[in-house]
Design a protein that fits this description.
Elements: H1 15-22, E1 27-31, H2 36-42, E2 47-49, E3 58-60, H3 63-69, E4 80-81, H4 88-91, H5 93-111, H6 113-116, E5 125-128, H7 132-141, E6 147-151, E7 161-163, H8 166-173, H9 180-186, E8 192-196, E9 203-204, E10 207-220, E11 223-235, H10 248-251, H11 255-258, E12 271-273, H12 274-285, H13 287-308, E13 320-328, E14 334-340, H14 350-367, E15 379-380, E16 383-388, H15 419-426
Parallel strand pairs: 1-2, 1-3, 3-4
Antiparallel strand pairs: 5-8, 6-7, 6-8, 9-10, 10-11, 10-13, 11-12, 11-16, 13-14, 15-16
Helix pairs in contact: 2-14, 5-13, 12-13
Protein backbone atom coordinates (compact mmCIF):
# COMPACT_ATOMS: atom_id res chain seq x y z
CA UNK A 1 0.00 0.00 0.00
CA UNK A 2 1.46 3.35 -0.93
CA UNK A 3 1.99 5.95 1.75
CA UNK A 4 -0.21 9.00 1.76
CA UNK A 5 1.47 12.31 1.29
CA UNK A 6 0.89 14.44 4.39
CA UNK A 7 0.93 18.21 4.29
CA UNK A 8 4.42 19.56 4.64
CA UNK A 9 6.22 16.49 3.31
CA UNK A 10 7.60 16.17 -0.16
CA UNK A 11 5.84 14.26 -2.86
CA UNK A 12 7.57 12.44 -5.76
CA UNK A 13 6.59 15.25 -8.16
CA UNK A 14 8.81 17.63 -6.21
CA UNK A 15 12.12 16.39 -7.66
CA UNK A 16 12.21 19.23 -10.18
CA UNK A 17 11.88 21.73 -7.33
CA UNK A 18 14.74 20.00 -5.57
CA UNK A 19 17.12 20.89 -8.37
CA UNK A 20 15.99 24.50 -8.13
CA UNK A 21 16.43 24.45 -4.36
CA UNK A 22 20.00 23.20 -4.56
CA UNK A 23 20.82 26.37 -6.41
CA UNK A 24 19.46 28.55 -3.58
CA UNK A 25 19.83 28.65 0.17
CA UNK A 26 16.27 28.77 1.51
CA UNK A 27 15.28 26.07 4.01
CA UNK A 28 11.59 25.81 4.85
CA UNK A 29 10.99 24.73 8.42
CA UNK A 30 8.07 23.78 10.61
CA UNK A 31 8.26 24.03 14.39
CA UNK A 32 5.73 22.69 16.88
CA UNK A 33 7.33 24.18 20.00
CA UNK A 34 7.10 27.71 21.35
CA UNK A 35 10.40 28.19 23.15
CA UNK A 36 14.11 28.67 22.50
CA UNK A 37 14.10 26.53 19.35
CA UNK A 38 11.63 28.96 17.72
CA UNK A 39 14.04 31.86 18.35
CA UNK A 40 17.02 29.92 16.96
CA UNK A 41 15.16 28.84 13.81
CA UNK A 42 13.83 32.34 13.14
CA UNK A 43 17.30 33.84 13.39
CA UNK A 44 18.94 31.32 11.07
CA UNK A 45 19.95 32.99 7.78
CA UNK A 46 18.00 31.76 4.78
CA UNK A 47 15.46 29.75 6.80
CA UNK A 48 11.75 30.49 6.42
CA UNK A 49 8.89 29.22 8.59
CA UNK A 50 5.95 27.47 6.96
CA UNK A 51 2.54 27.33 8.60
CA UNK A 52 0.07 24.47 8.92
CA UNK A 53 0.07 22.46 5.69
CA UNK A 54 2.89 24.27 3.89
CA UNK A 55 5.68 22.11 2.44
CA UNK A 56 8.73 21.86 4.69
CA UNK A 57 12.31 20.64 4.51
CA UNK A 58 12.93 20.53 8.28
CA UNK A 59 10.55 19.77 11.14
CA UNK A 60 11.25 20.31 14.84
CA UNK A 61 8.13 18.50 16.03
CA UNK A 62 6.90 17.19 19.33
CA UNK A 63 6.51 13.44 19.86
CA UNK A 64 2.72 13.71 19.55
CA UNK A 65 3.04 15.00 15.97
CA UNK A 66 5.50 12.22 15.22
CA UNK A 67 3.16 9.53 16.53
CA UNK A 68 0.25 10.78 14.41
CA UNK A 69 2.08 11.62 11.17
CA UNK A 70 5.37 9.81 10.70
CA UNK A 71 4.01 6.53 9.32
CA UNK A 72 1.92 8.34 6.70
CA UNK A 73 4.66 10.66 5.50
CA UNK A 74 6.65 10.50 2.30
CA UNK A 75 9.92 12.38 2.77
CA UNK A 76 12.33 13.38 0.10
CA UNK A 77 16.03 12.63 0.48
CA UNK A 78 17.02 15.98 2.02
CA UNK A 79 14.16 16.27 4.57
CA UNK A 80 15.06 16.09 8.29
CA UNK A 81 12.93 15.55 11.40
CA UNK A 82 14.02 15.74 15.06
CA UNK A 83 13.01 12.29 16.38
CA UNK A 84 13.50 8.65 15.47
CA UNK A 85 10.23 6.79 14.97
CA UNK A 86 10.49 4.65 18.13
CA UNK A 87 12.72 6.92 20.22
CA UNK A 88 10.80 5.69 23.30
CA UNK A 89 12.90 2.48 23.40
CA UNK A 90 15.53 4.63 25.15
CA UNK A 91 13.44 7.46 26.56
CA UNK A 92 10.63 5.60 28.32
CA UNK A 93 11.89 4.56 31.74
CA UNK A 94 10.73 0.93 31.66
CA UNK A 95 11.92 0.29 28.10
CA UNK A 96 15.31 1.88 28.74
CA UNK A 97 15.90 -0.52 31.65
CA UNK A 98 14.56 -3.49 29.69
CA UNK A 99 16.94 -2.76 26.80
CA UNK A 100 19.90 -2.17 29.13
CA UNK A 101 19.25 -5.45 31.00
CA UNK A 102 19.01 -7.35 27.72
CA UNK A 103 22.18 -5.72 26.40
CA UNK A 104 24.04 -6.56 29.63
CA UNK A 105 22.98 -10.23 29.34
CA UNK A 106 24.15 -10.33 25.70
CA UNK A 107 27.52 -8.86 26.69
CA UNK A 108 27.92 -11.39 29.50
CA UNK A 109 27.20 -14.23 27.10
CA UNK A 110 29.41 -12.95 24.29
CA UNK A 111 32.23 -11.09 26.06
CA UNK A 112 32.19 -12.21 29.69
CA UNK A 113 31.30 -10.72 33.05
CA UNK A 114 33.98 -8.02 33.06
CA UNK A 115 32.52 -6.48 29.92
CA UNK A 116 28.94 -6.86 31.15
CA UNK A 117 29.90 -5.08 34.40
CA UNK A 118 30.52 -1.93 32.36
CA UNK A 119 26.71 -1.69 32.13
CA UNK A 120 26.22 -1.53 35.90
CA UNK A 121 25.39 2.16 35.85
CA UNK A 122 21.63 2.16 36.43
CA UNK A 123 19.92 1.55 39.78
CA UNK A 124 18.12 -1.74 40.47
CA UNK A 125 14.77 -1.23 38.70
CA UNK A 126 11.53 -3.17 38.21
CA UNK A 127 8.60 -2.49 35.90
CA UNK A 128 5.27 -2.49 37.74
CA UNK A 129 2.84 -4.12 37.69
CA UNK A 130 4.46 -6.79 35.44
CA UNK A 131 7.52 -7.42 37.68
CA UNK A 132 5.79 -6.85 40.99
CA UNK A 133 6.70 -10.26 42.46
CA UNK A 134 10.37 -9.91 41.47
CA UNK A 135 10.35 -6.47 43.04
CA UNK A 136 8.89 -7.79 46.32
CA UNK A 137 11.64 -10.46 46.51
CA UNK A 138 14.34 -7.80 46.09
CA UNK A 139 12.59 -5.42 48.47
CA UNK A 140 12.59 -8.04 51.24
CA UNK A 141 16.33 -8.65 50.82
CA UNK A 142 17.13 -5.13 52.02
CA UNK A 143 14.51 -4.07 54.57
CA UNK A 144 14.47 -0.40 55.44
CA UNK A 145 16.01 0.81 52.19
CA UNK A 146 14.38 3.61 50.21
CA UNK A 147 12.74 3.11 46.82
CA UNK A 148 11.36 5.60 44.32
CA UNK A 149 8.27 5.14 42.15
CA UNK A 150 8.06 6.86 38.76
CA UNK A 151 5.46 6.76 35.98
CA UNK A 152 7.21 5.39 32.89
CA UNK A 153 6.08 8.06 30.43
CA UNK A 154 5.80 11.27 32.43
CA UNK A 155 8.38 14.00 32.91
CA UNK A 156 9.11 17.00 35.12
CA UNK A 157 8.74 14.99 38.33
CA UNK A 158 5.03 14.28 37.86
CA UNK A 159 3.65 11.32 39.83
CA UNK A 160 6.97 10.47 41.54
CA UNK A 161 7.11 9.45 45.20
CA UNK A 162 9.50 7.71 47.61
CA UNK A 163 8.61 4.80 49.91
CA UNK A 164 10.14 2.41 52.44
CA UNK A 165 7.26 0.05 53.20
CA UNK A 166 5.40 -2.35 50.93
CA UNK A 167 2.27 -1.06 52.60
CA UNK A 168 2.89 2.26 50.81
CA UNK A 169 2.69 0.47 47.47
CA UNK A 170 -0.45 -1.33 48.53
CA UNK A 171 -1.89 2.07 49.44
CA UNK A 172 -0.80 3.44 46.09
CA UNK A 173 -2.57 0.58 44.33
CA UNK A 174 -5.86 1.41 46.03
CA UNK A 175 -7.63 4.37 44.49
CA UNK A 176 -9.01 5.65 47.76
CA UNK A 177 -5.63 6.59 49.23
CA UNK A 178 -3.96 8.07 46.16
CA UNK A 179 -3.33 11.75 45.82
CA UNK A 180 -5.05 13.48 42.90
CA UNK A 181 -1.76 13.52 41.00
CA UNK A 182 -1.24 9.80 41.50
CA UNK A 183 -4.85 9.11 40.43
CA UNK A 184 -4.19 11.11 37.30
CA UNK A 185 -0.99 9.11 36.69
CA UNK A 186 -2.88 5.84 36.93
CA UNK A 187 -5.88 6.92 34.89
CA UNK A 188 -4.37 5.49 31.73
CA UNK A 189 -3.49 2.22 33.54
CA UNK A 190 0.01 3.49 33.26
CA UNK A 191 3.03 1.43 34.17
CA UNK A 192 5.45 2.59 36.82
CA UNK A 193 9.02 1.69 37.60
CA UNK A 194 10.15 1.00 41.16
CA UNK A 195 13.81 1.92 41.45
CA UNK A 196 16.22 1.63 44.35
CA UNK A 197 16.78 5.19 45.55
CA UNK A 198 20.41 6.31 45.67
CA UNK A 199 20.68 7.13 49.36
CA UNK A 200 24.25 8.48 49.25
CA UNK A 201 24.17 11.21 46.57
CA UNK A 202 27.16 13.51 46.18
CA UNK A 203 26.24 16.77 47.91
CA UNK A 204 27.45 20.34 47.39
CA UNK A 205 26.61 22.72 50.24
CA UNK A 206 24.45 19.91 51.62
CA UNK A 207 22.21 19.84 48.55
CA UNK A 208 21.50 17.09 46.07
CA UNK A 209 21.90 17.69 42.32
CA UNK A 210 21.82 15.83 39.05
CA UNK A 211 23.45 16.52 35.69
CA UNK A 212 21.77 17.28 32.38
CA UNK A 213 24.02 16.29 29.48
CA UNK A 214 23.20 16.57 25.78
CA UNK A 215 23.93 13.83 23.24
CA UNK A 216 23.04 14.19 19.55
CA UNK A 217 22.54 11.04 17.47
CA UNK A 218 22.46 11.48 13.70
CA UNK A 219 22.44 7.77 12.81
CA UNK A 220 21.97 4.41 14.54
CA UNK A 221 23.24 2.27 11.66
CA UNK A 222 26.10 2.95 11.82
CA UNK A 223 25.94 4.60 15.26
CA UNK A 224 27.08 8.22 15.08
CA UNK A 225 26.84 10.23 18.30
CA UNK A 226 28.02 13.68 19.40
CA UNK A 227 28.53 14.95 22.97
CA UNK A 228 27.95 18.61 23.83
CA UNK A 229 30.58 20.40 25.94
CA UNK A 230 28.05 22.43 27.91
CA UNK A 231 25.40 21.10 30.24
CA UNK A 232 24.44 21.86 33.79
CA UNK A 233 23.90 20.58 37.31
CA UNK A 234 20.38 21.10 38.73
CA UNK A 235 20.28 21.56 42.49
CA UNK A 236 17.48 21.01 44.95
CA UNK A 237 16.67 24.13 46.94
CA UNK A 238 16.52 22.26 50.28
CA UNK A 239 19.35 20.50 52.13
CA UNK A 240 19.44 16.74 51.65
CA UNK A 241 18.11 14.44 54.36
CA UNK A 242 16.65 10.93 54.39
CA UNK A 243 14.58 11.70 57.48
CA UNK A 244 11.76 13.06 55.32
CA UNK A 245 11.05 11.08 52.18
CA UNK A 246 7.89 13.05 51.38
CA UNK A 247 9.59 16.40 50.69
CA UNK A 248 9.90 16.72 46.90
CA UNK A 249 12.10 19.80 47.24
CA UNK A 250 14.75 17.64 48.93
CA UNK A 251 14.70 14.64 46.61
CA UNK A 252 13.66 15.82 43.12
CA UNK A 253 15.99 18.18 41.28
CA UNK A 254 13.68 18.83 38.29
CA UNK A 255 13.36 22.56 37.64
CA UNK A 256 9.61 22.07 37.18
CA UNK A 257 9.46 20.90 40.82
CA UNK A 258 12.03 23.28 42.30
CA UNK A 259 10.54 26.43 40.81
CA UNK A 260 7.37 25.88 42.85
CA UNK A 261 9.39 26.12 46.10
CA UNK A 262 8.48 29.26 48.09
CA UNK A 263 12.09 30.54 48.12
CA UNK A 264 13.02 29.63 44.52
CA UNK A 265 15.23 32.18 42.71
CA UNK A 266 16.35 31.10 39.22
CA UNK A 267 19.34 33.46 39.24
CA UNK A 268 20.66 32.17 42.58
CA UNK A 269 22.41 28.88 42.26
CA UNK A 270 19.76 26.29 41.33
CA UNK A 271 21.87 25.56 38.24
CA UNK A 272 25.61 25.36 37.75
CA UNK A 273 27.14 25.27 34.29
CA UNK A 274 29.06 22.04 33.63
CA UNK A 275 32.38 23.93 33.48
CA UNK A 276 31.78 25.28 36.99
CA UNK A 277 31.01 21.80 38.32
CA UNK A 278 34.09 20.29 36.65
CA UNK A 279 36.32 23.01 38.15
CA UNK A 280 34.79 22.46 41.61
CA UNK A 281 35.28 18.68 41.49
CA UNK A 282 38.84 19.03 40.15
CA UNK A 283 39.78 21.44 42.96
CA UNK A 284 38.33 19.05 45.53
CA UNK A 285 39.33 15.62 44.20
CA UNK A 286 42.15 16.19 41.70
CA UNK A 287 42.25 15.99 37.90
CA UNK A 288 42.80 12.22 37.71
CA UNK A 289 39.69 11.31 39.70
CA UNK A 290 37.56 13.76 37.72
CA UNK A 291 38.94 12.42 34.42
CA UNK A 292 37.84 8.93 35.52
CA UNK A 293 34.36 10.23 36.41
CA UNK A 294 33.91 11.83 32.98
CA UNK A 295 35.20 8.68 31.23
CA UNK A 296 32.62 6.69 33.19
CA UNK A 297 29.94 9.08 31.91
CA UNK A 298 31.18 8.61 28.32
CA UNK A 299 30.72 4.86 28.90
CA UNK A 300 27.09 5.46 29.98
CA UNK A 301 26.30 7.47 26.83
CA UNK A 302 27.81 4.94 24.42
CA UNK A 303 26.53 1.76 26.12
CA UNK A 304 23.00 3.09 26.48
CA UNK A 305 22.89 3.95 22.77
CA UNK A 306 24.34 0.55 21.87
CA UNK A 307 21.66 -1.11 24.00
CA UNK A 308 18.94 0.20 21.65
CA UNK A 309 20.93 0.22 18.42
CA UNK A 310 19.25 -2.93 17.10
CA UNK A 311 15.71 -1.94 18.08
CA UNK A 312 15.58 1.73 17.04
CA UNK A 313 14.18 2.09 13.54
CA UNK A 314 17.04 3.85 11.79
CA UNK A 315 15.99 6.43 9.21
CA UNK A 316 18.29 8.82 7.35
CA UNK A 317 15.68 11.58 7.77
CA UNK A 318 15.89 11.44 11.57
CA UNK A 319 18.16 12.80 14.26
CA UNK A 320 17.66 13.05 18.02
CA UNK A 321 18.92 15.45 20.67
CA UNK A 322 18.79 13.49 23.94
CA UNK A 323 18.89 14.99 27.41
CA UNK A 324 20.66 12.56 29.76
CA UNK A 325 20.03 12.79 33.52
CA UNK A 326 23.00 11.56 35.55
CA UNK A 327 23.30 11.39 39.34
CA UNK A 328 26.66 11.19 41.15
CA UNK A 329 27.02 9.31 44.41
CA UNK A 330 29.51 10.00 47.22
CA UNK A 331 32.11 7.77 45.54
CA UNK A 332 31.89 9.85 42.33
CA UNK A 333 30.18 6.98 40.53
CA UNK A 334 27.74 8.27 37.88
CA UNK A 335 24.29 6.66 37.69
CA UNK A 336 21.98 6.90 34.68
CA UNK A 337 18.57 8.05 35.93
CA UNK A 338 16.80 8.58 32.61
CA UNK A 339 17.10 9.80 29.02
CA UNK A 340 14.75 12.45 27.63
CA UNK A 341 13.62 12.60 24.00
CA UNK A 342 12.37 16.16 24.42
CA UNK A 343 14.76 17.78 26.90
CA UNK A 344 13.34 21.08 28.10
CA UNK A 345 14.31 23.95 25.83
CA UNK A 346 12.55 26.51 28.02
CA UNK A 347 15.14 28.68 29.75
CA UNK A 348 15.13 29.22 33.52
CA UNK A 349 17.54 32.22 33.38
CA UNK A 350 19.40 34.39 30.85
CA UNK A 351 22.51 32.20 31.14
CA UNK A 352 20.40 29.11 30.57
CA UNK A 353 18.75 30.72 27.52
CA UNK A 354 22.11 31.57 25.95
CA UNK A 355 23.45 28.06 26.55
CA UNK A 356 20.36 26.46 24.98
CA UNK A 357 20.58 28.79 21.97
CA UNK A 358 24.21 27.72 21.40
CA UNK A 359 23.25 24.05 21.79
CA UNK A 360 20.44 24.33 19.24
CA UNK A 361 22.48 26.38 16.75
CA UNK A 362 25.20 23.72 16.83
CA UNK A 363 22.60 20.95 16.45
CA UNK A 364 21.41 22.67 13.25
CA UNK A 365 25.03 23.05 12.08
CA UNK A 366 25.49 19.24 12.38
CA UNK A 367 22.15 18.39 10.75
CA UNK A 368 23.54 20.68 8.01
CA UNK A 369 20.53 21.44 5.82
CA UNK A 370 22.70 23.97 3.95
CA UNK A 371 25.37 21.41 2.97
CA UNK A 372 28.32 23.28 4.52
CA UNK A 373 30.11 20.29 6.12
CA UNK A 374 32.26 17.56 4.57
CA UNK A 375 30.89 14.80 6.86
CA UNK A 376 34.39 14.08 8.20
CA UNK A 377 34.33 16.65 11.03
CA UNK A 378 35.20 15.53 14.58
CA UNK A 379 34.04 18.78 16.11
CA UNK A 380 31.29 21.22 15.17
CA UNK A 381 30.93 24.18 17.53
CA UNK A 382 30.30 22.83 21.03
CA UNK A 383 29.73 19.25 19.81
CA UNK A 384 32.52 16.65 19.75
CA UNK A 385 32.10 13.44 17.76
CA UNK A 386 32.14 10.72 20.42
CA UNK A 387 31.28 7.62 18.41
CA UNK A 388 31.36 6.96 14.68
CA UNK A 389 30.80 3.22 14.18
CA UNK A 390 33.52 2.90 16.82
CA UNK A 391 35.28 5.14 19.36
CA UNK A 392 36.62 8.49 18.16
CA UNK A 393 39.95 9.70 19.52
CA UNK A 394 41.34 13.19 19.94
CA UNK A 395 43.51 14.66 17.21
CA UNK A 396 46.42 15.24 19.59
CA UNK A 397 47.07 11.55 20.28
CA UNK A 398 50.80 10.91 20.59
CA UNK A 399 51.87 8.52 17.83
CA UNK A 400 54.23 6.78 20.27
CA UNK A 401 51.20 5.52 22.18
CA UNK A 402 49.71 3.74 19.15
CA UNK A 403 49.21 0.10 19.98
CA UNK A 404 48.86 0.87 23.67
CA UNK A 405 45.68 1.71 25.58
CA UNK A 406 46.54 5.40 25.91
CA UNK A 407 44.04 6.67 23.37
CA UNK A 408 42.02 9.57 24.71
CA UNK A 409 38.34 9.79 23.82
CA UNK A 410 37.31 12.78 21.74
CA UNK A 411 35.02 14.13 24.48
CA UNK A 412 35.29 17.43 26.33
CA UNK A 413 32.26 17.60 28.62
CA UNK A 414 32.65 20.52 31.01
CA UNK A 415 35.75 21.82 29.20
CA UNK A 416 36.22 25.18 27.53
CA UNK A 417 33.70 25.72 24.75
CA UNK A 418 35.41 28.09 22.29
CA UNK A 419 32.74 27.30 19.72
CA UNK A 420 32.63 30.67 17.93
CA UNK A 421 36.32 30.53 17.06
CA UNK A 422 35.98 26.91 15.94
CA UNK A 423 32.89 27.63 13.82
CA UNK A 424 34.60 30.58 12.10
CA UNK A 425 37.40 28.24 11.02
CA UNK A 426 35.07 25.40 10.08
CA UNK A 427 32.10 26.94 8.31
CA UNK A 428 31.97 29.08 5.25
CA UNK A 429 29.61 32.03 5.65
CA UNK A 430 25.94 31.40 4.89
CA UNK A 431 25.18 32.20 1.25
CA UNK A 432 24.89 35.98 0.96
CA UNK A 433 26.41 36.48 4.41
CA UNK A 434 29.78 38.17 4.94
CA UNK A 435 32.27 36.32 7.10
CA UNK A 436 32.48 37.95 10.54
Amino acid sequence: MSKNKTPGCKGPHDYQKRGEREGRSSVRYKCGLLNTIQDVLRQRPGWAEVKDDGEWDFNWCDVGWLRENFDHSYMEEHVRICHFRNHYELTRKNLMVKNLKRYRKTLEREAGRMEAAKCDFFPCTFALPSEYHLFVEEFKRSPGSTWIMKPVAKSQGKGIFLFRKLKDIMDWKKDGTRSEEQKDAAAQVESYVAQRYIENPYLISGRKFDLRVYVLVTSYIPLKAWLYRDGFARFSSTRFSLSSIDDQYVHLTNVAVQKTAPDYDPEKGCKWQMQQLRRYLTAKHGAEMVETLFKDMDNIFVRSLQSVQKVIINDKHCFELYGYDILLDQNLKPWLIEVNASPSLTASSQEDYEMKCRLLEDTLHIVDMEGRLTGREKRVGGFDLMWNDGPVYREDVNLETLGSSCFTANTHLGCVNDREKQLRQLLKPFPGQKRI
